Amino acid sequence: MEGLLIGCGTFLLIGLFHPLVIKGEYYFGTKINGAFLLGGFVFAGLSIFINHLIASILLGVVSCCCFWSIKEVKEQEQRVLKGWFPENPKRKEYYREKQAE
Description:
81% helix
């Protein structure tokens, strides 16, 4: 039963991080990567010190999702530049500079 619980938890966490990456890039751009990096280290530390096996594993999954999101934010920015996702109108100048590069 523990494996099924961990699998479902992992599935839900990955699903949760997908919109976090999209919204994070929309509102903060690649600056959100600092929060994902900090979160990754915090959740990794918690995973090490929590004695409950399932909680420790799921905290490790959250940590890995945070670290993976750093890469995904950069890719999300590229998807926005290609027009696949809407750009934040408040950051229009930022996107114009990126397209000029």
